[in-house]
């Protein structure tokens, strides 16, 4: 679990993306640099109570988070958080995790 | 457009396939039923369009071989819920361009619960790498949050979605091919177990095994026992917003004006709609994009127009009651609309059905579906 969500940022127009793209839809170029975003706000949350094909399933909390850079991402929560909670973003081997900003 | 739909066929739509039944056999059986309904011989078919999540490692040509078809035109479609409309468009243009004279269009699967879970966890790189590890368990979690956004934006209550689900179940009672036909009450809906809040199990499509097919050809090939159905217009949109919106609009919002002007009719002229219903929220989103909901009042339209069955939506029962057989989900609405316009939808026939709108929606890239299309179909005289 590493602090920050990795972004690919267009070196030409500055737009940041998660997940990574191949061509920037804003300017049509493909010059990328790596960046990170650390902060976000929870917009919606849900509880995954059942999963198809699973018999032993522990309910999971998932959120739609708007990052401080503007990306809308799907993040895992380690505890239920209300809407509008300010969160710190982490990268769990590719999966975004959001934790309450203490 | 001069190409017409001259036959429909379905197979399966069962929860538990019998020994010997598989995705392949359901696809075969739906094709044979559609060709028979079209009054054609197997050897008359010179084009095939197929969509299935479960035929791998076979491709469309392997299917053509196994199906005993020698063809001039072949297409395999991977657009999920939008595949039916996409294949219909290609088939119509294929016939009109003279590339083929009789094309069978089919979608189907027999994935089962485990197969469905495997499919959705590995749907694409973005889902596999960034969403599945969170335990998202298929698209339910993503559409539960989209549903919350729609409820907030349009003042919709759970009961409003319930009215839609109950109405579709009432339509399903008249469809012998539907998986669930027993009437559903609001109590049952409101007390049903949550799958992914606020989605209860009746808001999520039941997985079925089966296939749906149509035959696209020219009107002179149509058999005497029913009328052909013309495609007045068909428009599509792919990745219209790069997944950067709230998902409450689909790409149909970009093409609806073109669709109606190409069709030469108005939304209010349409007598029924078959709208891709992976979730009730998406039915309302697409109807609104298609300009079928007056004054953006989604809640009222759900409650009154759909709920009281004043405007017929998803008369087969839709995927929510008829069941989703994988890639057949993109075909179910087209088959139903054609049958309604042919006046052969026994048990659920909309009186004097003349014009219908059909939509397909699918392929969650990251947060919601990115492929969408709609067609205006007409009973040819
Ligand atoms: Zn750029």
Describe the structure concisely for a colleague:
With 102 residues, chain A is mostly beta strands. Chain A has strands at residues 2-3, 5-10, 16-17, 32-37, 39-48, 60-67, 72-77, 86-92, 95-100.
Tell me the name of the CATH class of the largest domain in chain B: Alpha Beta
Please compute the radius of gyration of chain B using only Cα atoms.
Answer: 19 Å
CATH architecture of chain A: Beta Barrel
Report the β-strand fraction of chain B as a percent range: 15-25%
The 3D shape of chain A can be described as globular
Query: Are there runs of chain B of 5+ residues with pLDDT below 50, and where?
Result: none
Sheet with the most strands, sense and barrel status of chain B: 9 strands, mixed
Strand order in the sheet with the most strands of chain A = 5-6-7-9-8
Number of strand elements of chain A: 9
CA(first)-CA(last) distance of chain A: 17 Å
Strand tally of chain B, please? 11
Radius of gyration of chain A: 15 Å
Largest interface by Cβ-Cβ < 8 Å: A-B, 29 and 35 residues
Element pattern of chain A in H and E: EEEEEEEEE
* Number of helical stretches of at least 4 residues of chain A: 0
Q: How many domains of chain A? A: 1
**What is the CATH architecture term of the largest domain in chain B?**
3-Layer(aba) Sandwich
Instruction: State the distance separating the first and last CA atoms of chain B.
Output: 15 Å
Overall residue-averaged pLDDT value of chain A: 95
């Amino acid at each position: 679990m590493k602090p920050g969500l990795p972004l690919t940022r267009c070196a030409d127009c500055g737009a940041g993306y998660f997940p990574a793209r191949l061509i920037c839809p804003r300017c049509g170029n493909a010059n990328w640099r790596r960046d990170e975003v650390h902060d976000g706000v929870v917009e919606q949350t849900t509880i995954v109570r059942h999963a198809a094909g699973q018999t032993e399933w522990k309910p999971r909390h998932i959120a739609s988070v708007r990052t401080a850079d503007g990306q809308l991402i799907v993040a895992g929560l380690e505890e239920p958080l209300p809407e509008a909670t300010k969160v710190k973003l982490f990268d769990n081997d590719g999966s975004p995790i959001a934790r309450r900003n203490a | 457009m001069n190409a017409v739909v001259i036959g429909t066929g379905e197979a399966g739509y069962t929860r538990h396939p019998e020994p010997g039944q598989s995705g392949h056999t359901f696809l075969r059986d739906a094709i044979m039923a559609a060709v028979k309904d079209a009054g054609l011989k197997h050897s008359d078919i010179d084009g095939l369009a197929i969509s299935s999540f479960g035929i791998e490692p076979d491709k469309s040509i392997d299917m053509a071989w196994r199906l005993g078809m020698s063809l001039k035109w072949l297409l395999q479609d991977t657009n999920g819920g939008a595949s039916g409309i996409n294949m219909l468009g290609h088939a119509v243009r294929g016939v009109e361009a003279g590339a083929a004279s009789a094309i069978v269009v089919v979608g189907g699967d027999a994935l089962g619960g485990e197969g469905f879970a495997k499919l959705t966890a590995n749907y694409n790189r973005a889902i596999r790498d960034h969403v599945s590890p969170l335990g998202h368990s298929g698209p339910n979690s993503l559409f539960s949050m989209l549903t919350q956004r729609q409820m907030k934006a349009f003042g919709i209550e759970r009961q409003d979605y319930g009215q839609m689900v109950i109405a579709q179940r009432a339509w399903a009672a008249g469809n012998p091919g539907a998986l669930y036909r027993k009437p559903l009450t609001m109590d049952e809906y409101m007390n049903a177990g949550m799958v992914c809040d606020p989605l209860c199990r009746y808001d999520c499509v039941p997985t079925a095994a089966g296939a749906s097919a149509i035959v696209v050809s020219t009107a002179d090939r149509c058999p005497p026992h029913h009328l052909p159905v013309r495609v007045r217009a068909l428009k599509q949109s792919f990745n219209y917003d790069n997944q950067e919106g709230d998902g409450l609009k689909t790409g149909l919002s970009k093409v609806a004006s073109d669709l109606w002007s190409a069709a030469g009719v108005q939304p209010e002229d349409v007598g029924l709609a078959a709208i891709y219903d992976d979730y009730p929220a998406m039915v309302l989103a697409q109807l609104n994009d298609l300009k079928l909901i007056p004054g953006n009042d989604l809640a009222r339209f759900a409650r009154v127009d759909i709920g009281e069955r004043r405007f017929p939506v998803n008369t087969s029962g839709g995927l929510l009651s008829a069941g989703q057989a994988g890639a057949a989900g993109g075909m179910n609405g087209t088959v139903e609309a054609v049958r309604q316009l042919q006046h052969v939808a026994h048990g659920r026939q909309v009186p004097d059905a003349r014009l219908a709108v059909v939509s397909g929606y699918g392929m969650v890239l990251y947060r919601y579906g990115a492929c969408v299309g709609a067609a205006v179909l007409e009973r040819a005289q």
